[in-house]
Amino acid sequence: MRTIIITGGAGFIGSHVVRLFVNKYPEYQIINLDKLTYAGNLANLKDIEDKPNYRFVKMDICDFDGVYKLMQEEHVDGIIHLAAESHVDRSIKDPFTFAQTNVMGTLSLLQAAKLYWESLPEKWDGKRFYHISTDEVYGALQMTHPEGIEPPFTTKASSGKHHLAYGEKFFTEDLKYQPHSPYSAAKASSDHFVRAFHDTYGMPTVVTNCSNNYGPYQFPEKLIPLFINNIRHRKPLPVYGKGENVRDWLYVVDHARAIDLIFHKGKIGETYNIGGFNEWKNIDIIKVLINTVDRLLGRPEGADMDLITYVTDRAGHDLRYAIDSSKLQRELGWEPSLQFEEGIEKTVRWYLDNQEWMDNVTSGDYQKYYDDMYKNR
Ligand code: NAD
Ligand code: TYD
């Protein structure tokens, strides 16, 4: 038996983590604690909402008293913390909300867990605070090769496997934090607080930094779902700058699998980077999306290339992210299960097959789901 709070479980990645834990561990009690900001959508969890080992609690992670009381009442022994403001463009417009939720919210959660767990006779024994973070805390990598070879080139990861890369350096766990956006600055600060609670009080923490995720249930302000929906409706695709920035993409279910593994087997006090050695230039991904949507909708492949619209670049736009996940692969035996081509095909199909989900999100109707389904439970 375990009782675990998963914060941010109504969001994109959180909903996949909640689904995996509820289905895989019927003996655990899973509490999804989420404030339901614009990014929270309980319809993401329709398929598991009536399971006996699942409970939803609408709460702000900044509500210290509420979290402390919930932990006491439910005898919570694990926290998997995903709740955050997560969109870089929003952080550029409104940095305060990012500091409030990502920094103060994480601190409030840490302090509530500390006070509750320290009050128990067994104290830290059998407890775990798992903080989910991003590779963006490391800053941006260059697109260079020591011998001047034009990227992308084939390189060998420290795991021993060959893959395509746009530069010779990767984000490893020992790299200095150099966040650039208000989003990544706030996430970096929250990571430091988690490590400080481990180092100062001995809290059993673990931190992971993952690359860009894609897959079903992602809010359509992020590149992949936004562009799939725009291609479907033949709306312009706003490509920032020249579309040359590189991101390292991982299928969301593979991230959830890594979280499951690390929650159970990861070493206390450690950091693990999660990524699939899968770097892509934005413009190349956009072309794959156009071809895939066109093909699946029965349009001539590439017919919608003219939707590509170059717009003013994002302020402080990080050039390249690339994760070295060798430590996780070596120490815990994790591997991504899907090749990118498979994952993208699956993802495009999901959005095209779930147009109602997309329409509810774009119309704002999804925000009524809580009132309709939960308020009087
Ligand atoms: P998301 O924006 O889709 O979901 C965030 C969830 O947190 C929402 O359900 C929202 O309602 C909830 N939330 C926000 N503020 C809250 C608060 N104050 N109290 C309680 N709940 C609150 O985010 P996501 O993309 O699923 O990311 C989840 C986590 O993973 C974040 O911590 C993010 O930094 C990290 N991450 C994301 C990616 C990615 O590519 N999306 C990659 C690496 C790491
Ligand atoms: P995004 O999905 O916002 O993730 P992140 O900024 O966390 O990497 O963006 C992915 C990449 O796509 C990033 O380089 C910015 C770019 N982008 C666009 O070119 N146009 C868009 O409309 C969006 C949302 C992103």
Give the fraction of residues assigned to helices.
25-40%
Task: Write the CATH architecture name.
Answer: 3-Layer(aba) Sandwich
Strand content: 15-25%
Q: Count the helices. How many?
A: 12
Shape verdict: globular
Bound molecules: nicotinamide-adenine-dinucleotide, thymidine-5'-diphosphate
The assigned structural class equals alpha/beta
Strand order of the largest sheet: 3-2-1-4-5-8-12
Count of beta strands = 14
Largest sheet: 7 strands, parallel
CATH class: Alpha Beta
The topology string of helices and strands comes to EHEEHEHHEEEHEEHEEHEEHEHHHH
Q: Into how many domains do the coordinates divide? A: 1
Give me the Rg, rounded.
Answer: 20 Å
* Name of the CATH homologous superfamily: NAD(P)-binding Rossmann-like Domain
CATH topology: Rossmann fold
Runs in which pLDDT lies below 50 for 5 or more consecutive residues are none
End-to-end span in angstroms? 25 Å
Q: What integer is the average pLDDT?
A: 96
